[in-house]
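User: tokens in, sequence out, please.
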């Protein structure tokens, strides 16, 4: 009988694990150890704290601390971090950061949900003042405080978070420059042609975008005054570094937990680690990529809560399986919904997968309807078997909801021929008779048939 479950990490995965553990086991003692001063909050909302679209950062907090104890009998230990543990004795060493003291905590089942930390590139001067990363509420408020007293900023990295921060700072009317080492923005989720569509939109809104450029140095004495990019000085009152994240695995390693090929914690389909009675979930975990069956680091909130659910249920005595991810992602930038799932063309090529691609420019409603918007849709299939392996959609509306449909197609391993049997809705104020998804799929199907005839 599980009497005590301890969750190390109070983010999306950790709290999801605790909540689902309580649903399964009404009697177990459940403790969540969280290094931050706040209970769980939406990290995806942080850029909107910077822009002040969300003026009160505490509104991102899902539930107050008292809610956990009063309604769920879950004890939160804020400002605390697990520094070591003995898996044989099932004892953890906990440091209270606020009072700078050590204490011990026993467990029957342990869930490691220690998340990730910003990955900082080896740039000269990166340790100067006014150089920020964005991971916490305090990070967002600090960036906002500086931004309100500044005229310009430089963003290093053009991934999702970097571009969301760029939009937030432009919303505050700062001059913003984004520098990306790779040849395009959003290199992990878009092909170059779709990236150019979004980049043009950003430039229309006054963002300077430099791709294929390396930041060699952050200028300034004590505080950042800009960056040096391949010999050119680009001024900025502060710098935000957004170059990805790395899994927090130090505690897990001290517990003797095995890591996978990616450097994340290795688990099975029940989110069990290599150490008995120790589970793991979230950004610290290596995840199965269902499109290629390879291990990856997902670092996505949607993945974290699902893994947390499975870890919590199983730790509490239930039985549930986590199968993996197809990497379904979206954001909204400068009026465009940007959505992606599965492989890009470059990622397929690197894996020696010959992809056939269908790209169309469609409409979200019939063209005659006043609120009809342009929608760019791309679908990729494996030329060998016709299976859908990826998709990208950009437009003022309708991108995110459509990418969910492709996500299901990937999860069910549908071929493009099977997908074309999808019956979509039609009503002039909602959708055209031939949805852009079907038009793109038909484009791919015709290319696939031509290829078969040639061979």
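Assistant: Sequence out:
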């Amino acid at each position: 009988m599980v009497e005590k479950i301890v969750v190390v990490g109070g983010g999306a995965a950790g709290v999801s694990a605790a909540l689902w553990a309580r649903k399964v086991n009404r009697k177990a003692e459940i403790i969540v150890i969280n290094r931050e001063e706040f209970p769980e909050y939406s990290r995806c909302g942080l850029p909107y704290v910077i822009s002040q679209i969300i003026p009160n950062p505490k509104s991102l907090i899902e539930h107050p601390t008292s809610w956990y104890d009063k309604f769920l009998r879950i004890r939160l230990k804020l400002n605390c971090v697990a520094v070591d543990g003995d898996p044989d004795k099932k004892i953890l060493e906990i440091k209270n950061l606020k009072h700078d003291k050590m204490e011990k905590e026993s467990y029957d089942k342990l869930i490691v949900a220690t998340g990730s930390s910003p990955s900082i590139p080896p740039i000269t001067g990166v340790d100067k003042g006014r150089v920020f990363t964005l991971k916490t509420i305090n990070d967002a408020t600090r960036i906002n405080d500086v931004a309100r007293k500044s005229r310009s900023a430089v963003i290093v990295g053009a991934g999702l978070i970097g571009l969301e921060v760029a939009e937030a700072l432009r919303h505050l009317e700062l001059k913003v420059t984004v520098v990306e080492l790779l040849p395009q923005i959003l290199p992990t989720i878009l092909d170059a042609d779709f990236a150019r569509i979004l980049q043009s939109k950003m430039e229309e809104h006054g963002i300077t975008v430099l791709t294929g450029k390396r930041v060699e140095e952050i200028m300034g004495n004590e505080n950042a005054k800009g960056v040096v990019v391949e010999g050119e000085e680009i001024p900025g009152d502060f710098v935000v570094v957004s170059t990805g994240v790395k899994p927090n695995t130090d505690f897990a390693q001290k517990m003797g937990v095995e890591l996978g090929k990616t450097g994340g914690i290795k688990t099975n389909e029940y989110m069990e680690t290599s150490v008995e009675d120790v589970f793991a979930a979230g950004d610290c975990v290596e995840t199965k990529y269902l499109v290629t069956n390879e291990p990856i680091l997902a670092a996505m909130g949607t993945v974290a809560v699902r893994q947390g659910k499975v870890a919590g249920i199983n730790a509490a005595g239930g039985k549930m399986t986590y199968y993996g991810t197809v990497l379904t992602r979206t954001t909204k930038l400068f009026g465009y919904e940007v959505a992606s799932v599965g492989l890009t063309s470059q990622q397929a090529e690197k894996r020696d997968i010959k992809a056939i691609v269908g790209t169309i420019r469609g409409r979200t409603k019939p063209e005659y309807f006043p609120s009809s918007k342009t929608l760019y849709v791309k679908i990729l299939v494996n030329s060998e078997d016709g299976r859908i392996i990826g998709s990208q959609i950009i437009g003022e509306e309708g991108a995110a909801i459509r990418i969910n449909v492709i996500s299901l197609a990937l999860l069910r391993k549908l071929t493009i021929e099977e997908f074309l049997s999808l019956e979509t809705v039609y009503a002039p104020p909602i959708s055209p008779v031939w949805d852009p998804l079907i038009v793109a799929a038909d484009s791919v199907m015709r290319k696939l048939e031509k290829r078969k005839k040639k061979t």
